[in-house]
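Dear Dr. H.,

I hope your travels went smoothly. While you were away I took the liberty of generating a structure for the chain from your last submission, since the lab meeting agenda had it listed for discussion. I wanted you to have the full record in hand beforehand rather than looking at slides cold. The sequence, exactly as received, is reproduced here:
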Amino acid sequence: MAATATLDTFLAPTARRARRAEVAQPAFDRPDPYAQLLACWVDFMRTDDRDLGAGGMKLASDAEAEVSVHDAQRAADLKMGEAVNAMVDSLTTLHRWAIYKSQGIATAWRFPNADFAITLTAARDDLEQKLRKNVATRLYFL
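The corresponding predicted structure, in token form, is as follows:
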């Protein structure tokens, strides 16, 4: 707002009408399904699976009737990560290591004669094609 010295009043700034293209935005930005599935896979790969003994098991009578929503979502994400792991394991060794390195699972690049960036784009395309065909993961791409 600008104040005029002669009238001692405030002048409002001029209003501009917004264009339809500026206002018309989707209400929800859809997440990238490939990134979402790989996040589940990385979580699956980093879970601690060393404690598989009977200490964590409960009898059916000791089971709690109340189920945490967060635990159920984590279990669903781990199952999805296991499905993605099957697809990653079906890739060639070169493509598998490119995916491993891009997600921080492996730190070393074992193929000095292969370009990592080119191999990663080919591996991503191959993995995305397999994920689109898989029964468990294809709903993410609709």
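Two observations you may find useful: The longest strand covers residues 2-3. The chain is about 45% helix and 5% strand.

With kind regards,
E. W.
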